[in-house]
Amino acid sequence: MVSAVVYAAHIGYEHFRIRTSPGSTALHVAFGAAVGAFGLAAAAIVHSLLTGTGNLRLLRIALLIWPLITGVPAFVVALVLTAVLARIPRCRRAIPGR
Asked: 13 burial class (0-12, 13-18, 19+ CB within 10 angstroms)?
């Protein structure tokens, strides 16, 4: 749940606050997801080394695979979502005195 909230918040920040293009937003969000997956794989290796369990060879492969299997779908979903958001007109607040 926390990851989904951070993912959505990152898309919202990039799109509404910074106002980057859909492609740039998707790239930044996917990179964030891939870095998180890499960190998770690295933590799994550390855990494996500390406890003496797990297949270290497979965990090393996970350092490459986990970022790919999270980053690519994160890019596609963010690209589609920001493309849809870009088509929705933005309401501007009325500024008093103007």
From this structure: middle
Burial 36-71 (b: 16+ CB within 10 A, else e): bbbeebeebeeebeeeeeeeeeebeebeeebbeebb
Burial of 31 (0-12, 13-18, 19+ CB in 10 A): middle
What is the reported pLDDT for 93? 66
The Cα 75–Cα 29 span in angstroms is: 7
What does the pLDDT look like over 33-79, one tens digit per residue?
999 999 999 999 999 999 988 898 999 999 999 999 999 999 999 99
* Better pLDDT: 9 or 96: 9
Query: What tokens does 45 get?
Result: 């290796």
